[in-house]
Amino acid sequence: MGSLGLCLSVLFGFVSLTWNSMVIIETNAMPPPSPVKCDRNGCTLYNAYGVWNDRKDCQVQRVIYPETEEELLLAVAEANKKKLKVKIVTGFSHSIPKLACPLRNSSILISTAKYNSGIDIDVKNMTVTVDSGVGLGNLIDKVEDAGLSLVVSPYWEGLSIGGIVSTGAHGSSWWGKGGVFHDHIVGISVIVAANASDGYAKIIQLDAQNPLFNAARVSLGMLGAISKVKISLEAGFKRSITNIYQNDTNLEDEFMDLALAHEFADITWYPSFHTTVYRKDDRVPLNTSGDGINDFIGFQPTPIFISESTRSAEENMEKTQDIEEQCALASTLVGYKKSLANGLKNDGVSFTGYPVVGLQGRMQASGSCLYSPKLIQSTCVWDRRIKGLFFYESGAVFPASNFGDFIRDVKKLRDFEPSNFCGLDIYIGFLMRFLKASEAYLGHSEDSVAVDFTYYRANDPLTPRMNQDIWEEIEQMAFFKYSAKPHWAKNRNLAFFGVKEKYPKFNKFLEAKKVLDPGNMFSTDLLDEIVFGKESANVEGCAMEGQCICSEDRHCNPRLGYLCQPGLIYTEAKVCRHSF
Questions:
Q1: 10 exposed, middle or buried (CB, 10 Å; 0-12, 13-18, 19+)?
Q2: Which residues form the signal peptide (predicted)?
Q3: How many Cβ atoms sit within 10 Å of the Cβ of residue 9?
Q4: Is 312 exposed, middle or buried (0-12, 13-18, 19+ CB in 10 A)?
Q5: Are the CB atoms for 102 and 146 separated by under 8 Å?
Q6: Among 94, 91, 144, 95, which residue's Cα sits nearest to residue 119?
Q7: Against a cut of 0.90, is the pTM above it?
Q8: H or E element in which residue 259 lies
Q9: Per residue in 309-365, pLDDT tens?
């Protein structure tokens, strides 16, 4: 194993010692920075990773931080009175596309980072009403303290409720109301522009009886400023999780059976190793023995020197195109994650065996890198203040009816050369989660499978990546051959090309926008490019980072031998491949 493998071996050994024996050492986690940074020249909005898809800064003249609903209302009114555009940003800013980026000189940015204190639990009616800036982790804790549970949530707890609602974030389930957070919402308050006689802004309260409700449940920030969200709860329960490792031979025929048999099931697929991990995940009664937690390895605090050394070694491996070392590393990491149950801990400290049973609130989401004990400085591995991991994250949502065919195609591509997929398996392989059909206009109209895959991103936009043609072919296969919908908060720009055609109720969403935001106060050209799937002008090198699909060699990097070529399995794909 080379330098990167050694580095990450040290990393996972350190993580194991740190989290399985807290008496040995503690880490001084640096909480993520504010997404907005201001100086005398104005403000810059970053996402959590520090770089937008187009690598251009998002600049704005002014940022407002309301702390109450009344202050949020006044901020929207002031902007409307001055005929300014408005974009809302959360305290976390985890969206990869520029959904929240305003126009520099004719807009204001409103942050909900300080509008985060209101959590009103109605135990009798089993609902909770929250300010839109409330963090998911905080909400989960408060709900559990009341003896209740949120049924579903995203896996990462470092999100605001308003951000979750705006982008359709989700967990995994085909049971009950399903695994998408917005399908557990029973009410939502939105602040919209109004006439002068109404004070230039007003609060609209929506519920299932209102025809605008299904537009507001996934709004992309286009309808108004989300003020409060009312969410249904259930009596508190525990979860029991067992991860089953097996060969991927029958994956395309078994994924539905797993989702139907286990309420919160998901699947991780490591194609280079022909391995699947079936998560058998079910609710169990509160009196079931177990005090486990889910402290997902990828969301644990990592010492800065480890993150930076890892990235440096990864860059060297990419530079030398060392596929052998990459696969050795992937094998090591998959083995470590298996031995540590990917962060599941039976007693809150260590993993001792399956099943791992714990309270829903301690199993449904994780994010320990957000918090801080003391000694060695650490962060989330993607923290933009350090030279840590830097990657793309693609998220595609397939109709369950054709997902098996997608798996078969990926297997054909894998079977050309399994080692080509080691770069994917270094991260999370393919993570598959289950989403139930939704009535939300920008939700998924049939039972679906959401697939996430993460892969290396170069520091320079024109620098080729090892096996980048493989990831580009999978990306185009997903979004164009199989018409997968892109996750609104993830993906490179090409994933959104033609996206509006994939939503049968897209026009209903636009009709609702005309009612709630007739002056397009909450829209910008950047947002419209994403939502309407507009293709930008094809320029030299644009395909190297997914800003376009290549049609000429100049869209790749011909100087370094990367030319525009057809896909290996999906020949209609056009990818940048090293050709001489």
A1: middle
A2: 1-20
A3: 15
A4: middle
A5: no
A6: 144
A7: yes
A8: helix 251-261
A9: 989 989 999 999 999 999 999 999 999 999 999 999 999 999 999 999 999 999 999
Cα(127)–Cα(121) distance, integer angstroms: 6
In 3D space, the residue among 532, 451, 526, 437 whose CA is nearest the CA of residue 487 turns out to be: 451
The H-or-E segment that residue 205 falls in is: strand 201-207
Q: How far apart are CA 568 and CA 469, in angstroms?
A: 9
Tokens of 483: 């018409």
66, 202, 205, 213, 521 from 199: Cα distances, Å: 17, 7, 17, 24, 16
Q: Cα angle at 489 between 485 and 389, to 5 degrees?
A: 115
Amino acid at position 28, single letter = N
Mean pLDDT of the chain: 93
E-state strands within 419-489:
430-435, 448-456, 485-486
Q: What three-state secondary structure class fits 122?
A: strand
* CA 422/CA 13 separation, integer angstroms: 21
387, 311 contact by CB (below 8 A): yes
51-65, 91-105, 444-458, 480-494: the lowest-pLDDT one: 91-105
| % residues pLDDT > 90 (the chain) | 87
**Dihedral sign, Cα of residue 133, residue 137, residue 138, residue 140:** positive
CA torsion sign, 362 to 345 to 349 to 333? negative
